[in-house]
Amino acid sequence: MRLYDTLSGGVRDFAPLRPGHVSIYLCGATVQGLPHIGHVRSGVAFDVLRRWLTAKGFDVAFIRNVTDIDDKILNKAADAGRPWWEWAATYERAFTAAYDALGVLPPSAEPRATGHITQMVELIDRLIDRGHAYAGDGDVYFNVSSLPDYGKLSGHRIDDVHQGEGVATGKRDQRDFTLWKAAKPGEPSWPTPWGRGRPGWHTECVAMCQEYLGAEFDIHAGGMDLVFPHHENEIAQAEAVGDGFARFWLHNGWVTMGGEKMSKSLGNVLAIPAVLQRVRAAELRYYLGSAHYRSMLEFSETALQDAAKAYTGIEDFLHRVRNRVGAVVPGEWTPKFGAALDDDLAVPTALAEVHAARAEGNRALDAGDHDAALTHAMSIRAMMGILGADPLDERWESRDETSAALAAVDVLVHAEVRRREEARARRDWAEADAIRDRLKEAGIEVTDTSDGPQWSLLDGADK
Length: 463
Hints:
Blueprint: E1 2-5, E2 10-13, E3 21-26, H1 37-55, E4 59-64, H2 71-80, H3 84-101, H4 117-129, E5 133-136, E6 139-142, E7 177-182, E8 197-199, H5 201-213, E9 216-223, H6 227-240, E10 245-252, E11 255-257, E12 260-261, H7 272-275, H8 281-290, E13 297-298, H9 301-324, H10 335-342, H11 347-366, H12 370-386, H13 401-425, H14 429-441, E14 444-449, E15 452-457
Parallel strand pairs: 3-4, 3-9, 9-10, 11-13
Antiparallel strand pairs: 1-2, 5-6, 6-7, 7-8, 11-12, 14-15
Helix pairs in contact: 2-3, 4-5, 5-6, 8-9, 9-11, 9-12, 9-13, 10-11, 11-12, 13-14
């Protein structure tokens, strides 16, 4: 298996630190508001990585944190006149619901920043003792110039570093970043050797990585917007205390609208509940996971509906096989599918294998070769299961009565289509046209394609 490592700037062979065991840390949500599709893309992308590693036989420890103390959380809670902890808990539940709705597996552990203050204080103490950090006016800062290779993840030159923090009286160099913030009136705070305060963002993830995965682990993942300053500053702290930290750094691309990153500040967000009024959860999962994880995903309503249509095509093939042949259990993924995921999670190539199997399966089904159709269906279930979107999985099998009725109608329509094909084969064009016209009167249109005749409802819902 090969993965693109942001630190080395290229694709490298992946082998875990411990044979048979893979350790992954994913930077999770800052729970300040409702999750949008840009937030959960990383959850979907790295859920595929986790599922693939598990399918290959690895025991996977997957940690995804929650940032439940942050300037934005405090400010929004204050503006709403609500306690900060209530605000954070409310939106933490919203993120959990969004992940669950999209079939993202629960992490092995989901630590909160506020639950690891002790570990953060110990880490900061070690940094001060080693000369990499200093206290000033109740704050504590990391001395960027004390680390010769600072900037190696993002490519930033140390002279050009801007942390995005305000000017502070205790900071010796504006390139330095905050490890601990002195308490302000009315804000939550914890006691430390430097006075009461709360953690800086970059410190919490290092402390939680090390608490759950150790001083060195396999993969650190997150959105590409975290490369600098967040992940750069994580590396700085870990290496400053002599820890190996992450061996691979994986970053997913943004979901964009009009070429801009989806963000609340730009007002171009699509909350998960709103999108789920337009497509089913499985279809949204398919859409978010269909592009390569490192690519930008430009959102459009057309692209969303195209993804929903593609997913429905897979779903309906599996239902056709189940209705005509019998139970469809997961089988084996194809060699090309496995090779694609081993090549830096090339999901688009893997999905091409799924759709190729669907096309072959449809042809086999229409030709009456039920054994071949069943084999393709079983393979599709295996592949879609690894992608987290197997239509016959219990969690997605919540089709309503209309969907169930359509599955039954498919059996009846198929019989008519076969009769039409037989009439065409004996050049009985009148009978073939009569069958087509009867179907059209019933609201069903038959289209002759390279994959054989396909039918659709005249309202456009392809079957």
